Amino acid sequence: MLMRPVSQITAAPWLALAARLALGTVMLWAGLAKVTDLRGSDAAVAAYGLVPAEAARLIGGALPFTEIAVGLLLVAGAATRFTAMLTAGLMTVYIAVIASAWARGLSIDCGCFGGGGQVTQGAQEGYAMDIARDALLLAVTVFLAWYPRAPWALDNRMRQGEPREARTADAVVHEMVLRRRRRRRGRLASVLAAVVVATAAVGGIGAIEASATAPAAAPGHVPAGATADKAGLVVSVGRVRVDIYLDYLCPECRIAEGSFAPVLTRLESEHEISLVYHPLGFLDSYSSPAGYSSRAAAAAACAADQGKLAAYTSVLYGRQPPERGPGLSTEQLIAAGTAAGITAPSFASCVRSGKYAAWVTYVSGVAYSKDIAVTPTVYVNGQQVDVSGTDPGSALAQAVATAASAGPVSAGTGRPGR
């Protein structure tokens, strides 16, 4: 058996195979990690603050399914050059948005493999690692787009089964015919791949839109002081309505609460605001076991029954557990009530029974149907206030002053109600 000289043996096809399988695996992993939590994917996109809430939801729904479709095409070796170029585009966008978050001083999880949103620490170091990883993957996609031919690929079937008459024609004409046929097949494969990816993206948008439907009705147990739609808890009454959507595991909520506290105390004492809290369970997946956000929100609803919601909120943020941990236990949530001045035995029994668990699910569903995906989110007389800066309290105070000078609100999210 004749052996080819070593100089004629190329590793490029095998490198292309390794690149294709590696990229496909990464894209599948990223997509599958997000697809089971589309609301989390929405929140991860929204946390970057680069697009409106409506657009963030559409992107959050489309992205996981797009990544899965691209991953499957890469693993199968179908329209490899086109799919590699599409992946390169995605990686470029990922690098740009992560760099933007870093430059703006945001402290968020990139949401690359599920999760996303605010984190208390490690974000700055994480940005560097995320960008380095995506830059490496971008380099791999560029190589694969340049050299897409590899073993075990559906693309290879386009180079098989040439007609007999083409094989017996003049060599130059024969090669021209084959090249033309391969180009046509390659374009067709790229179009089909684009259709697959677009269909997957549209399916993801449909799935997330379906999940954004407001709950049909409030549950039977609703805390004292509930608003007319049962999706908020009134803390004080005044001429300007302030709605605060919060999560007790959210670190940015804790920071904002500290800045809001003196402003809210002053405005409430002046009977200037109707303050409405909306405790949410958005970050349930950030505790282990999952569910702390909802447990804490349900306990806060029990505190509302005792007229101590604001005080209890302050205590919970003062004792906020770290992400990825178990959160405060049931007994610790009850002890937080004692620290907030709650003495009635009914509070402890309310917390232990999880009386308002269904209500928290309802409130979270209503909030999500209103394009609220991240916390804290603040509305003053129905207008969203940007509280992402270094002084959220001042931003809130200015918004209230502006709303007060404009006169009472007549409708919408800002309408006071019980």
Structure description:
This protein has helices at 12-35, 38-47, 53-76, 80-103, 123-146, 164-168, 171-211, 251-269, 292-305, 309-318, 330-339, 345-353, 357-369, 392-406, and strands at 108-109, 117-118, 233-234, 240-246, 273-279, 377-380, 383-385. With 418 residues, it is an alpha+beta fold. Helix content is 58%, strand content 6%. The chain has 2 domains: 11-157 and 164-211, no CATH class; 233-406, 3-Layer(aba) Sandwich (Glutaredoxin). Helix 4 (80-103) runs antiparallel to helix 5 (123-146), helix 9 runs antiparallel to helix 10 and helix 11 (330-339) runs antiparallel to helix 12 (345-353). Strand 4, helix 8 (251-269) and strand 5 (273-279) form a beta-alpha-beta unit.
Key phrases:
two-stranded antiparallel ribbon; single chain; Glutaredoxin; alpha+beta; disordered N terminus; 14 helices
